[in-house]
Design brief:
- There is one protein chain.
- This protein is an alpha/beta fold.
- The chain is built from 8 helices and 9 strands.
- It has a 5-stranded parallel sheet, with helices on both faces. Strands 4-3-6-5 form a 4-stranded mixed sheet.
- It binds guanosine-5'-monophosphate.
- The site of guanosine-5'-monophosphate (5GP) has 12 residues, from β5 and β6.
- Guanosine-5'-monophosphate (5GP) binds next to β5 and β6.
Length: 204
């Protein structure tokens, strides 16, 4: 039995900022940190696995979860619904392991309202030009879609005051170092380590 509940880390970033790469590396390299697996109505992309990347569900199932209060938050983006399952989060946190939520800004605000102790991290591109260049290099989206994503990025960036930590992804390794520092510093906080310190103190 663990003596504490896990931490919730919320990571948001405009599309193309490098969020997925950094989030993947954090979960691979840091012990006791897992991805939150969201529910979505969008179809799986090539290589995506149900129950690993997302829980892929139909709209009726998603709407039933909303009606039954089974989601901590949900949003509709780019024509699809995405949401964070309440049971999954709660049972996972009870094991003492930390969770990383990779969600957009509206959902992030709702998570913060439901879980004020969640640590909010915002990843920022070094400049508008650099973000545009990264989106084009990625070669995934046509120019019109890139413009939509840049417009959306402007809106998302304006949400930065809702976050506790801002990390600029200019150089991937430095951004990774900053994200890791936020997670490790959170784990060392007194509220979380108090029980351990009490136990050690009793031995004196
Ligand atoms: P994608 O379709 O590229 O996987 O995700 C599109 C956007 O939805 C990304 O910004 C991603 O962070 C966000 N997203 C994924 N899951 C959730 C979720 O459960 N809740 C919210 N609010 N956003 C999500």
């Amino acid at each position: 039995m663990t003596s504490h509940s896990g931490n919730v880390f919320v990571l948001s970033a405009p599309s193309g900022t490098g969020k997925s790469t950094l989030a993947k590396r954090l979960v691979q390299e840091l012990p006791d940190l897992d991805f939150s697996i969201s529910f979505t109505t969008r179809a799986p992309r090539a290589g995506e696995v149900d129950g690993k990347d997302y829980f892929f569900v139909d709209t009726a199932t998603f709407d039933r979860m909303i009606a039954e209060g089974g989601l901590v938050e949900w949003v509709e983006v780019y024509g699809h619904k995405y949401g964070t399952g309440k049971d999954w989060i709660n049972s996972h946190l009870a094991t003492g392991r930390d969770i990383l939520l990779d969600i957009e800004t509206q959902g992030a605000r709702n998570v913060h309202a439901a879980m004020p102790e969640a640590v909010m991290i915002f990843l920022i591109p070094p400049s508008a030009e650099e973000l545009a260049s990264r989106l084009r290099k990625r070669g995934r989206d046509p120019e019109a879609e890139i413009q939509v994503r840049l417009d959306h990025a402007r809106h998302e960036l304006s949400q930065f005051p809702a976050y506790d930590y801002l990390v600029v992804n200019d150089t991937l390794d430095l951004a990774y170092r900053d994200l890791q520092a936020v997670i490790l510093a959170t784990r060392a906080r007194r509220e979380r380590m108090g029980a351990v310190a009490e136990t050690i103190l009793k031995g004196f």
